[in-house]
Amino acid sequence: MELATWTYEGPPHVGAMRIVTAMRDTHMVLHAPQGDTYADLLFTMIERRDRRPPVTYTTFRAADLGSDTADLLKTSAREAGERFAPQVLLVAASCTAELLQDDPGGLARSLGLGVPVVPLDLPAYQKKEDWGAAETFYRLVRGLHRPVPAEQRQRASCNILGPCALGFRHRDDIAEVRALLGAMGIAINVVAPDDASPADLTRLGEAGFNVVLYPEIAGTAADWLARTHRQPRTHGVPIGVGATRDFIREVADLAGVDPAPAMALERRDCRLPWYSRSVDSTYLTGKRVFVFGDATHAIAAARVGTEEFGFELAGLGTYSRTFARDVRKAADGYGLEALISDDHLEVEAAIAAACPELVLGTQMERHIAKRLGIGCAVISAPAHVQDYPARRAPQMGFEGANVLWDSWVHPLVMGLEEHLLAMFRGDAEFHDEAGASHLGVHATIPVAANEDASSTGGPVWDFQAEAELKKIPFFVRGKARRNTEAFAAERGSATITLDTLYEAKAHYGR
Amino acid sequence: MTAPSPVIRDPGQRAVFCGLTGIVWLHRKIEDAFFLVVGSRTCAHLIQSAAGVMIFAEPRFATAILEERDLAGMADAQEEIDRVVARLIERRPDIRLLFLVGSCPSEVIKLDLAKAAERLSRAHAGRTRVLSWSGSGIETTFTQGEDACLASLVPELPAPLAGASPDLLVVGALADVVEDQFARLFDQLGIPARFLPSRRAALETPVGANTRVLLAQPFLSDTLTALERRGARHIPAPFPLGAEGTTAWIRAAARAFGIASEVVDGAIELPRARAHKALARQRTRIGGQRVAFFPDSQLEPSLARFLKEELNAQIVEIGTPYCDRRILGPELQRLDGLPIHEGNDVNRQLDRVRAARPDLTVCGLGLANPLEAEGLSTKWAIELVFSPIQGFEQAGDLAELFARPLARRDRLAV
Ligand code: SF4
Ligand code: SF4
Q: Which of A25, A297, B87, B401 ranks highest by number of CB atoms within 10 Å?
């Protein structure tokens, strides 16, 4: 048993949902108890998807155990096939159903649904979300693949593999990478799993090579295509200016085209190199930064931070054990020992011990950094609703590099401001603990001090009413106090009682 | 009065959280308790997702995640629990009450948590009391987790002193501000009232034959049964939602204690008038609107009654995960015979709702945005569980929760 408070990754079937939810005309029957339907909200709330994930849960109950769970699965598969008419039906078990050993895949196939059935085996007690996504994508690719002889493939064409549901900025990365490939005249055969149908997956073999944007998701499938069908894949991920240049060269080589038109985009579009060289950025030199995330984004952030911002790396780590080797190797290059852990308490301790000035991490590290009073930018999944901005905010390509510049510099105290803080240290408003105005650090000025200060000369709060006021959440308490006092003053009451408080509430309530 | 509402069963695919979700509010209500789920990574992920990734420094809940070696019998699960709990208590010596919470996986592999709790209570005697309950999705939905938790407390509660006079036990987690309002009201009426769960010292509330039980939440079937087993008697009542719901609830308690109705009138006159005033404002917005409920918290029949009776809304469909007539009887009397759909199949209900196109659909988080995208206004059911909505002073707030999505639709011009 492993003791966990917060987890970086969900179970493997959530990874499978990230694939089917990204795709079109695909449906999954998940043998699972009703509580597992919570996973829908990850997509509809965090990512704000406008459709339910294409998943039918069997929602078996204790009373069904031992007798009817297999029947329930068959009924669910049949109904899902009829209602949603998918091109492919995936069938999987969640952690509880795995224990029942109903063989969901076999059962669904025995029904003769007239739809190809892809069974998934997702060992819930060994594996996690990213593995589940990679495995699901691989099973789909493998199950639907139609081989095309290498000589019949168009060399200057590729598939873009990896973008999926609940990914960190996948939506915007696709557009950047498309533009880079387009500039070099490389045709895009299929993008998958995002917005791809099973029919699209049957055409993967027609492309000259595969661009793998997120190895965590598409690595397994791309390696299989390379091994079994001699379809080469990219290894570099274009996050940051240097990595984007490398990526352009790698892709141009594979496609046999001139990289120059894509390289030229840097001069037109990319402001990071000049911003980083401009004198006002001198203060960034040697800022200590702690990097933690999925392997791809963490390794990329370490390179960008050191080479393109002039930061000092204070720590590098990942929660993904599958990719531990890559992160260890990268950390080695910076003379650090990688932190490989999915225990957020351990990550918190490591960050506190490293005393960084900036954290580049996930939503979990954002909370850790907030508690420690350090600035933080989010660079990787697991993400939260605010990591799905309305504007385009890619991480990849030249525009992605601009976005990294803006979002990583913002949490740091600006150079000029640092001087001002030092100069005015003694002032009441600008005292030592004030901190940067955009960091939550203002909280060091006890919030209660402003919220709870009663204006003088007005009506007096009696003990009960005062105590009641304290129960109101602090962020609206100030308003409640002011309203109640105004209300009492208007009516000429000298004392505010409980009833005054609630009369006022009723009066001002909408 | 028309016949009470019939209950229609429509088994099929459900889309309701499991009882583990209750930990999200219970751990804040019972201040000296810790909740240790014995389950899978899914269970840990569910609680985290339901808590909205609100990351507290170190929350008072955690999951002992079962691994391959626990299932393959390579590790003795009971020993593993002892090890995890020892580590936990060492790290958090302030824990007075530890709940071992069962899940689907722990139920399916028949992990005996009651036995573990007994053993651990002995091992940590004088320091930490260990109890167990199950929030598994194969046995409980959403709010039934609270029921299971409170039911596990009941046998542990002390007996009253011999010859103790009757007192009132208000059962069901309420926001502190609501609990305090009710405590003052009962105090004014001269009714000695206690609350379960109490904020601190959850295990010190006496219960016995002198106890009269007034439920503050409708989903507490097992807790009620456990209390009755201790000799306590149930006061059936509608739930304290809205001005009239709260009035009926208070009156039911007052009747059980022989309080004259003029005394009640006097005590509730002001707050009740305030509630009416607040509701009058919302009635113009909500009156005549057609509202449908997906099953979520078991509060649905009471909320439908409130909307219909106090705000003149029209109820299109009431879905609820489970409807206990013993508890909801007084509400079912007031619903004009509107049927209650118990345990709805989600796809078939979606078909009905799409056809009926109500003005407001009360549903879970997984359905809300997809329905909004289809042009239907929605209200997240979960907010009705997390917000203070009971009592006179909150009647206006409760109405406002329903009015806001409608007002929003009116405002937006994009
Ligand atoms: S439904 Fe069962 S397996 Fe799923 S989260 Fe709830 S208790 Fe865990
Ligand atoms: S918001 Fe405040 S702290 Fe941040 S850069 Fe601007 S002036 Fe500086």
A: A297
pLDDT category of residue B3 using cuts at 50, 70 and 90: confident
Q: Please state, rounded to an integer, the average pLDDT across all residues of chain B.
A: 93
Q: Do A79 and B347 touch (CB under 8 A)?
A: yes
d(CA B229, CA B4): 28
Nearest CA distance, B329 vs chain A (angstrom): 26
Mark whether A282 and A358 lie in a shared domain.
yes
Q: Quick check: B150 contacting A, CB < 8 Å?
A: no
Q: Are B295 and B320 in contact (CB under 8 A)?
A: yes
Spell out which residues of chain A touch residue B364, defining contact as CB-CB under 8 Å: 41
> Using a 6 Å cutoff on CB, does residue A135 contact ligand 1?
no
Name the residue facing B396 among A61, A96, A506 (closest C-beta): A506
Torsion sign, CA atoms A20, A21, A22, A26:
positive
DSSP annotation of B341 reads E
Alpha helices of B190-291 — where are they, by DSSP H?
A: 221-229, 242-256, 261-286
The last residue of a domain, from among A269, A293, A321? A269
Three-state SS for A432?
coil
Question: Is residue A416 domain-resident?
Answer: no
CATH of the domain at A114: 3.40.50.1980
Least reliable range by pLDDT among A278-292, A339-353, B42-56, B261-275: B42-56
Q: Is A415 annotated as a binding residue?
A: yes
With beta carbons less than 8 A apart as the criterion, state whether B339 and B8 touch.
Answer: yes
Does the CB atom of residue A96 touch ligand 1 within 6 A?
yes
Asked whether residue A265 falls in the same domain as residue A236, the answer is yes
Instruction: Say whether both A116 and A175 belong to one domain.
Output: no
Query: Do the domain assignments include residue A141?
Result: no
Per-residue pLDDT band at A432 (split at 50, 70, 90): very low
**Is residue A193 domain-resident?**
yes
**CB-based burial label for B400 (10 Å; 0-12, 13-18, 19+):** buried
Smallest Cβ–Cβ distance between A48 and the set B138, B367, B369 belongs to B369
Known binding residue A310? Answer is no
CA distance A439 to chain B (A): 18
Q: Which residues contact A9 (CB under 8 A, 6 or more apart)?
A: A15, A128, A129, A130, A319, A320, A342, A382, B41
The minimum-distance atom of ligand 1 relative to the CA of A38 is: 5
- A438 CB under 6 A from ligand 2? yes
DSSP codes, A152-197? GSEEEEEEEE---TT-SSHHHHHHHHHHHHHHTTPEEEEEESTT--
Question: What is the nearest CA distance from B52 to chain A, expressed in angstroms?
Answer: 9
**Active-site annotation holds for A294:** no
Whether the Cβ atoms of residue A168 and residue A251 lie closer than 8 Å to each other:
no
Q: What whole-number distance in Å separates Cα of residue A159 and Cα of residue A233?
A: 9
The count of domains in chain A is 4
* Residues paired with B65 in a beta bridge: A2, B39
Greatest mean pLDDT among A362-366, A482-486, B53-57 lies in: A362-366
Contact B138 A50 (CB under 8 A): no
Domain that holds residue A264: 150-269
List the 465-484 stretch of A: residues with Cβ below 8 A of B: 468, 471-472
Q: Is residue A452 part of a domain?
A: no
Domain end marker among A378, A410, A442: A410
- A510 at the B interface (CB within 8 A)? yes
CATH of the domain at A496: 1.10.8.550
CA gap B42, B60 in Å, rounded: 18
**Is A279 in the same domain as A394?**
yes
pLDDT, tens digit (0-9, with 9 covering 90-100), for B207-241: 999 999 999 999 999 999 999 999 999 999 999 99
> How far is the C-alpha of A188 from the C-alpha of A170, rounded, in Å?
17
Contact A204, A143 (CB under 8 A): no
Choice among A121, A280, A406, A499 that is catalytic: A280
Does the ipTM surpass 0.90? yes
